[in-house]
Amino acid sequence: MRLRFQAATLDDVDDLVVLHLAVSQQLTSDFGKGPWSGAVSDRGVRFSMTRARIYVARAGKKLVATFALSTRKPWAIDKKYFTPSRLPLYLTSMAVSSARQRKGLGRQCVEEALRIANAWPADAIRLDAWDADAGAGDFYRKCGFREVGRAMYRNAPLIYFELLRL
To answer: Collapsing DSSP states into helix, strand and coil, what is residue 79?
Structure first.
């Protein structure tokens, strides 16, 4: 299934909250309570829109996936683990509707993020994933990201990944 990607607008806030809450609830149901169990609010999504470019993916009219790209380093990322880069982008807040996972939508989101990064321009994409069964580390490895380190952030184990676009 091909997705239609576009930059999120304020009209997407409610759908983004619903998507993130549903994914969080599914992860909590499958893997127990963890850092992925946090609440998402419309205020939080609106704030994120001031810090990053949020993209939505639609199948028809339904919002089924999202991700954010930013030049601003997230708090949980420690730059010392990454290859020096002049123009890194940080991929955050990626979520795919639970009902549509394992069908290639996440990979399409990564491909779209790479397309955007090449046009930005950026020379690297950096991200973190939970170092737990609920984390997406294996997914990012399969998408070509390289693990560059592991760290703890607020008692949550993380794996850092990068993809260099030099």
So the answer is: helix
pLDDT in tens, 105-159: 999 999 999 999 999 989 999 999 999 988 899 999 999 999 999 999 888 899 9
Q: Where are the domains of the chain?
A: 4-164
User: pTM of this prediction?
Assistant: 0.93
What does the pLDDT look like over 42-57, one tens digit per residue? Answer: 999 999 999 999 999 9
CATH classification for the domain delimited by 4-164, as one of 3.40.50.2000, 3.90.1150.10, 3.40.50.11780, 3.40.630.30: 3.40.630.30
d(CA 124, CA 109): 16
* Residue of 45, 39, 60 whose CA lies nearest to 15: 45
How far apart (Å, rounded) are the C-alpha atoms in residues 82 and 25?
A: 31
- The residue type found at 121 is P
Percentages helix, strand, coil for the chain (3-state, rounded to 5) are 35, 30, 30
**Sequence-ordered list of residues with C-beta below 8 angstroms from that of 10, at least 6 positions apart, any chain:** 46, 49
SS3 137: helix
